Amino acid sequence: MSVLRIGSARHASIVRFGLLVLLSILPASAQPIDVPATWGGDVWSRPRLTGSWLGLREELGKKGVMFDVDLLLTLKAS
């Protein structure tokens, strides 16, 4: 009897773990972001350095995908 209970508990935990894995890999829907009217312009006035990528950046932005890189430099003086 005790072997059956241990097997049942193990089976139940495997099923729970499987459900957890299945639920965690469901695709997450991205929220749309505000896309600037244009990505073009000269280097000093456009919002992104690399431009619009032939319109691909705007299309991806409408679907909630945005590539952004920030750089933070901290200078230390001794």
Write the layout of secondary structure elements.
Blueprint: H1 2-24, H2 56-62
Report on the structure:
It is a single chain. The chain has 78 residues and is mainly α. It has one domain. Helix content is 38%, strand content 0%. The chain is built from 2 helices and no strands.
Short key terms for the protein model shown above:
0% strand; 78 residues; mainly alpha; single chain; 2 helices
> Helix proportion of residues, in percent?
25-40%
User: Low-confidence parts, pLDDT < 50 over ≥5 residues?
Assistant: none
Distance between the termini: 72 Å
Rg from C-alpha positions? 25 Å
| Overall structural domain count | 1
Oligomerization category of the chains in this entry = single chain
Portion in beta strands: under 5%
Shape: elongated
Taking the sheet with the most strands, its summary is: none
| Secondary-structure element pattern, one letter each | HH
Number of helices: 2
Number of strands: 0
Structural class, by secondary structure, is mainly alpha
Round the mean pLDDT to the nearest integer and report it.
73
Give me a quick take on this structure.
It contains two helices and no strands. It is mostly helical. The radius of gyration is 25 Å and the shape is elongated.
